[in-house]
Amino acid sequence: MKGKTFYLLTYGCQMNVYDSRLIAEILSKNGYKEIKDENKADIIIMNTCSVRKHAEQRVVGRTGDLQRLREDNPDLIIGLVGCMAQNLIDTKEKIKGVDFMVGPDNYRELPKIIKGNQTTATAGCHFVPNQKYKTGLELYEGVYANQDNKVSAFVPVMRGCENFCTYCIVPYVRVGLQMRPQKDILKEVEGLLKKGIKEIILLGQSVNEYDNNKVDFPGILKMVSETSVARLGFFTSHPYYTTQKLIDVIAEGENIYKWIHLPLQSGSNQILKKMNRKYTKEKYMELICNTREKIPNISITTDIIVGFPGETDEDFQETIEVMKEIHFDFAYMFKYSDRERTAAYNLKPKIPEPVKTKRLSELIDIQHKIIHIKNEQLIGTTQEVLVQYKGRKNNVWRGKTKQNEIVVVEGKTLPGEIVKVKISSLKGWTPYGVITDKRK
Ligand code: SF4
Q1: pLDDT tens per residue across span 172-189
Q2: How far is the CA of 169 from the centre of ligand 1 (A)?
Q3: How many Cβ atoms sit within 10 Å of the Cβ of residue 423?
Q4: Ligand 1 center to residue 89 CA distance, Å?
């Protein structure tokens, strides 16, 4: 075995966060030891994201910085895994200073790859071909992620995506749509609960699309809600697959977050069509109305892309109108990022960068005001908060309300406890409060 210790660096989405813990478990079972100091590691693995160009540029920059460590440790191995690695493997591009690249379906091969690996100094970068397993789910067989958070854990219910939204590279790098067996999901959940985990977030690129011909996603959500889990959520859902049955399960589950993430992406029907999002603005608004009618206090969060090819000022105004009408509780807002291999890459006209920047800042401004108004309404209310971790000051903690909203709380408690908190003020838009009681 060439190296003994490894350091993991994670970029991108929640699925990557989970996958990194899976990698940690696979390597630990093979005799490697995870450390938290990159300067002392024999192997550095970067779990990468390919969704935006900026995310890739950060990885290239970081790879360059890490080369300084080779001066003290010429045997250092640096590997790229994840979506960007798969994209580079497929397009046969190499990055200087990387010893191996492995895509998201091949993590079980990592011990073998590392053992047989030579550093770039002698071998050049080693591509691991995208060896496909039978179903893609063999990745999980007999191995459960080594979660390092004591309160909260992600549990994937599926891998891959076949929706082919035209701006998204995920269907090219996480090929195929694989449903994880129901009993496997439950086994992982029960194992986590035995370890004291309080919050579980079910994961999938389009999680509510889950259907294994016997059970659909509302069925999986209900099944997990019937365990002893204190808080349960899911991420990220697609509006097209959001059914009344799913809304009913959220409404009925006492331990299910009253929160749903529904990426709108654009408020213009012509842009939604070009994005291949499978819904119109009207359908989306109807879904929001139905959801709020059934669960009046539900928190609705979203993703929005500005500057998609062909987005006119009128299209952008439509997005603003929808935002002002819906009043999202939170929004992740991005400028469109051109990705080779996607259908949108060939769409024209491209929107100039300064126009995208202006639109984004206008949108952010509006959304921030909405959040501020919404959070001001929390002042004076009492919320049930799951305490997640300690803040910087003594007796100050960060936690989540039943709407999955982050709040800062003061008082005597511990991570994992559910406490009653009276919200007294906002700092920025973050609600602050004092613990008034403990639920357990
Ligand atoms: S649903 Fe669309 S945006 Fe989400 S991962 Fe699939 S293709 Fe990408």
Answers
A1: 988 788 899 999 999 999
A2: 8
A3: 23
A4: 21
For ligand 1, whether the C-beta of 205 sits within 6 Å is: yes
Whole-angstrom CA distances from 373 to 187, 352, 369 are 42, 32, 6
Q: Is 416 in the pocket of ligand 1 (CB under 6 A)?
A: no
Please write the tens of the pLDDT for every residue from 235-285.
999 999 999 999 999 999 999 999 999 999 999 999 999 999 999 999 999
DSSP for 337-370, please give it.
---TTSGGGG-SPPPPHHHHHHHHHHHHHHHHHH
Q: Is 83 in the pocket of ligand 1 (CB under 6 A)?
A: no
Name 214's Cβ contacts closer than 8 Å, sequence gap at least 6: 182
Under CATH, what is the fold of the domain 138-373?
pyruvate-formate lyase- activating enzyme (3.80.30)
- 49 Cβ below 6 A of ligand 1: no
Residues in the chain: 440
Ligand 1 lined by 178 (C-beta under 6 Å): no
Domain boundaries, the chain: 5-127, 138-373, 382-438
pLDDT at 16 over 90: yes
**Ligand 1: does its nearest atom lie under 6 Å from the Cβ of 272?**
no
What is the position in ligand 1's atom list of the atom closest to the CA of 205?
5
Q: 167, 336 in Cβ contact below 8 A?
A: yes
d(CA 291, CA 242): 10
Residue 281 tokens read as 């603005």
198 C-beta closer than 6 A to ligand 1: no
Q: Distances in Å between the alpha carbon of 101 and those of 88, 107, 233?
A: 8, 11, 32
Which superfamily, per CATH, for 382-438? Nucleic acid-binding proteins (2.40.50.140)
Residue located nearest, by CA, to atom 5 of ligand 1: 205
pTM of the model: 0.93
Do the beta carbons of residue 439 and residue 401 sit within 8 Å?
no
DSSP letter, residue 71: T
Q: Whose structure tokens read 């397009």?
A: 91
What number does the ligand 1 atom closest to the CA of 169 have?
Answer: 8
Say if domain 5-127 classifies as CATH 3.40.50.12160: yes
Q: How is 128-154 classified by DSSP, letter by letter?
A: PP----SSS-GGGTT-------SSEEE
User: In whole angstroms, what separates CA 390 from the centre of its chain?
Assistant: 22
